[in-house]
Every structure is written in structure tokens, then in C-alpha cells.
Design goal:
The chain has 291 residues and is α/β, with parallel strands linked by helices. It has twelve helices and nine strands.
């Protein structure tokens, strides 16, 4: 399948590489130069990348970036052919997704929202889980691409519902990690080491996939970005915006958003979101490992 892949960040670079390994013809575009992705052709603009593509796949930072890459000057929409599919693995506003889909459908193409969970390691190992919204026909058409980059995909409903479900997932991730971070900070102040606490956590109902994944990094105070804190903060704001539109109160998440905002002000925005722990440790007067 002929694919244009737009956005070669932490996730996108590996995803594009896995499409090549899956036997697909891939043209890539990225805002910055960066290293080439083996087996791909590079385009100078999103429009050039999308020309003749059966599927245009996006993986960029936020809602504004999706709009710019698709509909801005030399954007991909200028080269969409009738019957093409735009698949978006960015995490963006569900409401904006519906509007973007309408604009693309007016050009004779279609839109599938396909945000992912699985982090950098999942992208590298082609074990991502896709959270999909869109028509049956379009989702079926991109299934070979989903299979090249991941192991599972979950249909959530019509266009926009994939993004909505991704926000719900990230709400839980942020809240679970915050509980873990606060617990181990209090534990440290009470003289209970993380090394002794983790086996108890993992043997009990407190255990979660979030803790299993993040604990080894936290033990080493390794905050190399798998999912940068600045992007999690962006997602928390999207969640709160969606909640406001739906007249749903999320008081716990609002507090977590404030913590991430302060952690970003402390200069941790480009570290992994687990670096929010550094702020809790600072407030508790705990000595942390310099990053």
C-alpha cells in the first residue's frame, strides 16, 4: 500500500519504519530534518508526501499541528485523491477531529482517528494498541497498516470516538501514576524504600500496567522521554476541555493538571511525564538524583 507518513517524532519514526518492514511503500515528511528512515522516500512538504498516496498517516504533536499539516500552506489536503484515507495517530480534540473529517470528506476522501497506546517501546516493537474511530469500510482498508505497526486495535465507534476513548485512557494513566508517585513520596518520608514497597504493590490489588511499566524507570530516576511531560500536559488540557464541553467535573484531574503545569515550569517538560515525581520530591524535601 502507498502511504504518506507525516510526523517523525518519538512514535512516528518507528511507526514509519515498521510500515516499510511490512512491505508498504512509504513517503515521509517531518517538520525538522532529523535522520532518514531506512526504506522511505522523503518529501519536502506534506502536500508532496500525500500526492498519490492511498493512505495519509499523521502522528504529530497536537490539534493545531494536525490542522496545519493537513490544511495549511502546502498541506496534505491539497494532494488528496478521491478514495484516499487520512488516519490520525496524534492525540487531539475529538470535536476538532469531526470537523477535520468533514473537510476531508468534502474532498472525496475519508478520515479515521487512530490514536495509540503503548509508548515508545510499543512503537519500536510494533506492539502498539490502536484506538480507532471511523467507518467500517475505511477501517478495513487500513487494517494491514494497523497490523504492521501494532498487535491490537479496538473499534470505538464513528469518527471522533477513537480520540474520545484515548482521552479517557490518558485520564486514567495520569491519575494512576499520580497516585503511585504520591504514595512512594510519602513512603520515602516515612522510611519505606521503593525497593521494598514495589514487591508489595505488585502482589496486591494496587498493581497496574502503568506501575509495571514506569516503576523500573522511577527506580533509576531515569526520565528519558517515552511520553514527554509536555505532551501529557497537552492531553490533560484536552481532557479537561472535553469534560467542560460535556458538563462533567473532574476535580482530581484538575489537580494533576496543575502539578504537571508546575513541573513544566520547573523545566521538566521534555522529560518523561514520570518526572512529575521530581516536583513531589522537591515539595517533600527529598534529595533527588540530578537529571
Amino acid at each position: 500500500m502507498k502511504v504518506a507518513f507525516l510526523g517523525l517524532g518519538i512514535m512516528g519514526r518507528a511507526m514509519a519504519g515498521n510500515l516499510v518492514k511490512g512491505g508498504h511503500e512509504v513517503t515521509v515528511w517531518n517538520r525538522g530534518a532529523g535522520a532518514p528512515v531506512e526504506g522511505t522516500q522523503r518529501a519536502g512538504t506534506p502536500e508532496d508526501a500525500a500526492r498519490g498516496a492511498e493512505v495519509v498517516w499523521l502522528c504529530v504533536s497536537d490539534t493545531a499541528a494536525v490542522e496545519h499539516v493537513m490544511f495549511g500552506l502546502r498541506g496534505a489536503s491539497g494532494a488528496l485523491t478521491p478514495g484516499a484515507i487520512v488516519a490520525d495517530s496524534s492525540t487531539i480534540s475529538p470535536a476538532a477531529t469531526v470537523k477535520f473529517a468533514d473537510r476531508v470528506r468534502a474532498l472525496g476522501a475519508d478520515w479515521v482517528d487512530a490514536p495509540v497506546t503503548g509508548s515508545k517501546i510499543g512503537a519500536q516493537n510494533a506492539t502498539l494498541i490502536f484506538i480507532v474511530g471511523g467507518s467500517d469500510v475505511s477501517v478495513e482498508k487500513i487494517q494491514p497498516l494497523l497490523s504492521a505497526m501494532g498487535t491490537q486495535f479496538f473499534r470505538m465507534g464513528e469518527t471522533g470516538k477513537g480520540q474520545a476513548a484515548k482521552l479517557v485512557m490518558n485520564l486514567q494513566i495520569a491519575m494512576i501514576f499520580e497516585g503511585f508517585a504520591e504514595a512512594i513520596t510519602l513512603g520515602a518520608k516515612l522510611g519505606v524504600s521503593l525497593d521494598s514497597l514495589l514487591p508489595l504493590i505488585q502482589a496486591s490489588m494496587v498493581r497496574s500496567g502503568v506501575i509495571d511499566y514506569k516503576a523500573p524507570f522511577v527506580q533509576k530516576h531515569d526520565f528519558t522521554p517515552n511520553f514527554p511531560l509536555r505532551l501529557m500536559l497537552k492531553d490533560l488540557r484536552l481532557i479537561l476541555e472535553a469534560a467542560k464541553e460535556s458538563r462533567v467535573k473532574l476535580p482530581g484531574l484538575k489537580t494533576v493538571e496543575e502539578i504537571y503545569d508546575l513541573a513544566s515550569e520547573e523545566g521538566h517538560g521534555d522529560l518523561d511525564y514520570a518526572a512529575s515525581l521530581l516536583l513531589l520530591e522537591k515539595w517533600a524535601g527529598l534529595k533527588t538524583v540530578a537529571q
